[in-house]
């Protein structure tokens, strides 16, 4: 299990938080936690199943920008 914190732009409300966390969980991460104040998402994932690129793509497909 690995953990990564990604900086995400465009998240501003509870709906944004839920959308990003839900998209990541559907992609197969173990845990995703959005912090709206810092504009980050902490992701716990299995690197044998998902790459950082896939995590970024999942967030971007949900309509947010990973920087």
From TrEMBL:
The keyword Metal-binding applies. Gene3D superfamilies: 3.30.70.100. It comes from Tumebacillus permanentifrigoris. Residues 2-67 form the HMA domain. GO terms for molecular function: metal ion binding. The lineage of its organism: Bacteria, Bacillati, Bacillota, Bacilli, Bacillales. InterPro entries: CopZ, Heavy-metal-associated_CS, HMA_dom, HMA_dom_sf. This is Copper chaperone CopZ. It comes from the Bacteria. Keywords: Copper, Metal-binding.
């Amino acid at each position: 299990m690995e953990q990564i914190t990604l900086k995400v732009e465009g998240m501003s409300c509870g709906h944004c938080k839920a959308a990003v966390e839900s998209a990541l969980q559907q992609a197969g991460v173990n845990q995703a936690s959005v912090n709206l104040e810092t504009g980050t998402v902490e992701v716990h994932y299995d690197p044998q199943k998902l790459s950082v690129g896939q995590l970024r793509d999942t967030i971007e497909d949900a309509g947010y920008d990973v920087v």
